[in-house]
Amino acid sequence: MSFLDRQNFLLRRLHSLTGVVPVGAFLVEHFLTNSFALGGEESYNEKVAFLTSLPYLYVIEALFIFLPIIFHGLLGMWIVFSAEVSVARHRYLRNWLYFFQRVSGVFLVVYITVHVWTTRFAGEENLFRLMEHKLSSPGWMWFYIAGVTAATFHFANGLWGFMVTWGITVSPRAQRWSTYACAGVFLAMTFVGVNALLAFTGDAVTFLQK
Questions:
Q1: SS3 helix, strand, coil % of the chain, rounded to 5?
Q2: How many CA atoms lie within 13 Å of 164's alpha carbon, on the beta-carbon side?
Q3: DSSP 116-185
Q4: By CB count within 10 A, which of 3, 19, 52, 207 is most buried?
Q5: CB atoms < 10 A from the CB of 151, how many?
């Protein structure tokens, strides 16, 4: 047996945990930061400037963002290509969700790589203008909407699996209610994420702002 097979139980627990903390927590923070675009260019760039001026920024990014995402993504790829998916034989909701969890994970590896490379390492100081220019292209906009939707689905469905894996929701009734709750998380986060994208083009919904 390979190392991954021998440590399968521990690695899957760590994969589940990192998907919620810190990766899931960062996703929530990232969406909220992007939502400052609702206030316009100055509001958004001020928030970005504050975050990029944090002490020990590179250490924080490495330990709490990049390394956990890389670990979660690489281990996720191993899980995807070593698992058996049987949606053709067993067309249950949970089986389909299991299938789309794997599909969204593969797409997110591509999406996150492109997103980070074209923003974090683009060398552009005015990120609002950068995103405004990118999202003015329908192709980029739909790519980002697909990425946001894949990320929110992957997180929300992974949150359901996290609660089962760690013994938080054991009974069928608890798992049923957690399904509803995670569906709510998916819808709420998708709205926030997509609305933040639309803010860069001036098409966002703003009636929920104070």
A1: 80, 0, 20
A2: 17
A3: HHHHTTS--S-HHHHHHHHHTSHHHHHHHHHHHHHHHHHHHHHHHHHHHHTTSS-SHHHHHHHHHHHHHH
A4: 19
A5: 24
What is the distance between the alpha carbons of residues 118 and 99, in angstroms, rounded to a whole number? 29
Flag whether pLDDT at 176 surpasses 70. yes
Write down how long the chain is.
Answer: 210
- What pLDDT does residue 124 have? 87
- Find out whether 204 and 195 touch, Cβ atoms under 8 Å: yes
pTM over 0.85: yes
Peptide bond into 22 cis (omega under 30): yes
- Show the domains of the chain with their CATH numbers: 3-199 (1.20.1300.10)
- Could you give the 3-state DSSP secondary structure of residue 10? helix
pLDDT in tens, 67-114: 999 999 999 999 988 876 666 566 688 888 999 999 999 999 999 999
Whose tokens are 């930061």? That residue is 33
| Cα 155 from Cα 147, distance rounded (Å) | 12
Are the beta carbons of 65 and 18 closer than 8 angstroms? Answer: no
Note the maximum CA span of the chain. 57
Cα separation, 106 vs 125, whole angstroms: 30
